[in-house]
Amino acid sequence: MGNRDELIQCSIPFLREVKDMTPGAEMERWLNQKYGEGSQLYQDLARLIKLGVEEGWAANQEVEGPNYRRSRILEPVPETFQFSITAVYMNSTDPRRFKDEDDHDVLRGQYHGHPYGELNLVVPLDKGAELRGLQGWQGPGWTAPDPGSRHYPEVRGGAVIALFYLPAGRISYDFAAPS
């Protein structure tokens, strides 16, 4: 079994457990308590998604240059309880970065919405790198944007891989960004 297939197989028991839960702040807290950085699931998924980026089967399609890439690893299928699996690589050392309120360099991605929410494993590649979730900045761990939420993905402190699970594979880039 290759690393891509191992990541999918590693995800299935997790998705079986969460398939009837609703993403949001409460689930995000639960995910970080049960499956945070010290858990075996986090360690396994982080190792496999890092290998995916290194091997070129994950986050391999440039969105806006080499520091903002993503790819769908698996479309929604019955085996994953109709969750899709996607990876995004973002690196805030990109020349398009801007300074946030704390004077950190931030890279902002494409504005989008989550019709059914999202479960997002945050894997920093650089010490101190973080992804902005709906509850604030997140280092190693999880974010869980709730159904109907919309946001810009943002990273600061270096490079992050986000491995995310979308119920029914739903994500929408059809929303106008706030002005």
What's the shape? globular
Proper CATH architecture: Sandwich
Percent of residues in beta strands? Answer: 25-35%
- Residue share in helices? 10-25%
Mean pLDDT: 94
Number of contiguous helices: 3
State the total count of DSSP E strands.
Answer: 13
Overview of the molecule:
InterPro entries: PnbB. It holds the Pfam family PnbB. The chain has a single domain (3-169), classed as Jelly Rolls. It is 23% helix and 32% strand. It has helices at 3-18, 25-34, 40-55; strands spanning 61-62, 68-74, 83-91, 98-99, 105-108, 112-114, 119-124, 130-133, 136-138, 141-143, 149-151, 154-156, 159-167. The strands form three sheets. Strands 1-2-3-13-7-10 form a six-stranded antiparallel sheet. Strand 1 and strand 2 form a beta hairpin. Helix 1 runs antiparallel to helix 3 (40-55). The longest helix is centred in the N-terminal third of the chain and has 16 residues, at 3-18.
What are the SSEs and their pairings?
Layout: H1 3-18, H2 25-34, H3 40-55, E1 61-62, E2 68-74, E3 83-91, E4 98-99, E5 105-108, E6 112-114, E7 119-124, E8 130-133, E9 136-138, E10 141-143, E11 149-151, E12 154-156, E13 159-167
Antiparallel strand pairs: 1-2, 2-3, 3-13, 4-5, 5-12, 6-11, 7-10, 7-13, 8-9, 8-12
Helix pairs in contact: 1-3
Pfam families: PnbB
InterPro entries: PnbB
